[in-house]
Amino acid sequence: MKTFILLLFLGFQTVVSLAQDGDKMPYLTKSLANDAINSVVVNTSAGGILVSGRSGQQPRVEVYIKGNNNRELSKGEIKKRLDEDYELNITVNGHELRAIAKNKHNMNNWRNGLSISFKIYVPQQSNTDLTTSGGGISLDNLKGSENFTTSGGGLEIDKLTGIIHGNTSGGGIKVSNSGDNINLETSGGGIIAENCIGKIRLETSGGGLHLENLKGTINAHTSGGGVEGSNIEGELITGTSGGGIDLKEMNCSLDANTSAGSLHAQMKHVGKYLKLDANSGNIDLELPLKQGLDLNLKADRVNQHPWKISGFSGEWDKDHIKGTVNGGGIPVNANASSGNIDVKFN
Question: Which of 115, 114, 117, 111 is nearest to 130 (CA)?
């Protein structure tokens, strides 16, 4: 558990650093009070991006600039480097804000480079198209179509509604209190998803998954860590080749598989199906006592306590249980090809 949390924390450091810019004075501020912004396009090669639709904020753009080596620079030094090496354009056209910062020469001397970050406050009903290769991205309190990508930082998403599509190859992801259609991917960190609803797709090859209070159709996969989940409704399809799976308070259809650890699934209620597969570990399965189930459990050894289940009908061997409980109904399939299955009914 401690290692899992540490990996996620490291992935979010770039997002935290962007938030800390709020303690400093922006290099420049542009008011958007009269523009009725409904679309935001940002592109910066070495900085973070924050877009917020939180109420009570004056619509505006704030630009924060520092040296690429994290060294604070005077306004005079910043202006000199901007004039010589960068294009910084902030424009509004037809209710669309465009904030673009790019290097004019594609210079290789990173020591003289600038990190140009944007903090943007707009109406809640706003679409975004955000790109950076050198920092984290944070979005909150927005409704619309949100597309964002970074190769050098984490993603933090809170209170978004609509189409949410984000990608990072250099950090972790945290998404909370969001819904409708969520599609998030990272190859460089873990993913935390909390209090979300709708169609949810989460993918990482560089860390673990933590899933809590989710409702909808959820696909969540990792090849670089374990999976933890609690209180999930609807359908969950999850898998890992880099750790174990621990799922509690499940009230859903469930398909879970791991090739690198054990699997624990605590089912309050089984949805349309239950399918569990552990190639190199044990399965610990808790099933609802009064639900009608069709059991098909295979392992080196299947253990159930007490030994006989009330209302069971079928075949019961030391390595295989195939039969019905409470008259049958929902298919329950579990396979531990190199381990044991411990099953109990609560």
Answer: 117
Cβ contact 62:99 at 8 Å:
no
Contact 136, 148 (CB under 8 A): no
For the entire predicted model, the pTM comes to: 0.91
Query: How far does the chain reach from its first CA to its final CA, in angstroms?
Result: 26
CA 308, CA 280: separation in Å to the nearest integer? 27
pLDDT at 5 over 70: no
pLDDT at 346 over 50: yes
| Residue (of 200, 205, 197, 206) closest to 220 by Cα position | 200
CA distances from 95 to 101, 123, 164, 336 (A): 20, 11, 21, 57
| pLDDT surpasses 70 at 29 | yes
What pLDDT is recorded for position 20?
46
Predicted pLDDT of residue 19: 47
Q: Which of 174-183, 257-266, 301-310 shows the lowest per-residue confidence on average (mean pLDDT)?
A: 301-310
Residue 7 banded pLDDT, cuts 50, 70, 90:
very low
